[in-house]
Amino acid sequence: DDPGIARFLERGLAAHGRRALTANNGQDGVQMATDESVDFILLDIMLPGMDGQEVLRRIRARRPGVPVLMLTARGEVQDKISALDGGADDYLTKPFDLEELLARMRALVRRADQPQASRIQIGDLRMDLRSHRVWRGERLVDLSSREFALLEYFVRHQGQVLSRQQILSAVWDYAFDPGSNVVDVYVSYLRNKLDRRGEPSLVATVRGAGYCFEPPEHD
């Protein structure tokens, strides 16, 4: 809803070979996102007429697979969690650096292209989605079906802080139970099977927020 930021983004994206369509209110944004052939959506949380959360809900109902990055002027953890719980793939707090925005866009577009692939590889971690087999380097890792589902969810949201509520809903299809420790238990299982002695865990604990999958480095 800020014309100056919109012009900055149009010019910056054009300089990197990307064409931007802009809408300065929520209603027009929903229509543009669903009627136009767009492959990425940059969505402001604060919009006139219809806020970004409602815009996102309507877009997700019609185009569930399109990558969405939300912009917010608020840096509180709860605001970020609300954006992610609402269906955003990532968020960026204003003011932001254009190069960081472009990097996040590239990562989300790559991630959107992966779901149809039968194999996913990130660093030295490989997943075969058909056979449900996982390798860490050359070592085959034996995972249960629930452990595999949890790892796949982490991999598809790499670098993103995921709350226990998000994980429980996505992997177990449960409503959030503050007293449940099932997510923590299964994260521990994954760490025991995937992590290497003396190296940082692939799944980092973010105090007060949840967990974040940190892509492993190549050997």
Mean pLDDT: 84
Indicate the overall shape: globular
Write the H/E string, N to C.
HHEHEHEHEEEEHEHHEE
Widest sheet: strand order? Answer: 4-5-6-7
Q: What's the N-to-C terminus distance?
A: 45 Å
Estimate the strand proportion: 15-25%
Brief characterization of the structure:
With 219 residues, the chain is α+β, with helices and mostly antiparallel strands.
Topology (elements, then pairings):
Elements lengths: L2 H13 L10 H10 L5 E4 L7 H11 L5 E5 L4 H9 L4 E4 L4 H16 L5 E4 L2 E4 L4 E4 L2 E3 L3 H12 L4 E2 L1 H9 L9 H13 L8 E4 L3 E4 L6
Parallel strand pairs: 1-2, 2-3
Antiparallel strand pairs: 4-5, 5-6, 6-7, 8-10, 9-10
Helix pairs in contact: 2-3, 6-7, 6-8
Structural summary, described in words:
22% of the residues are buried. By secondary structure, the chain is α+β, with helices and mostly antiparallel strands. The strands form 3 sheets. The chain has a 4-stranded antiparallel beta sheet, with helices on one face. The protein has 8 helices and 10 strands. α6 (145-156) crosses α8 (182-194). The N and C termini lie far apart (45 Å). It has helices at 3-15, 26-35, 52-62, 77-85, 98-113, 145-156, 164-172, 182-194, and strands at residues 41-44, 68-72, 90-93, 119-122, 125-128, 133-136, 139-141, 161-162, 203-206, 210-213. β5 (125-128) and β6 form a beta hairpin.
Index terms:
3-stranded parallel beta sheet, alpha+beta, 4-stranded antiparallel beta sheet, 10 strands, globular, 8 helices, 17% strand, 219 residues
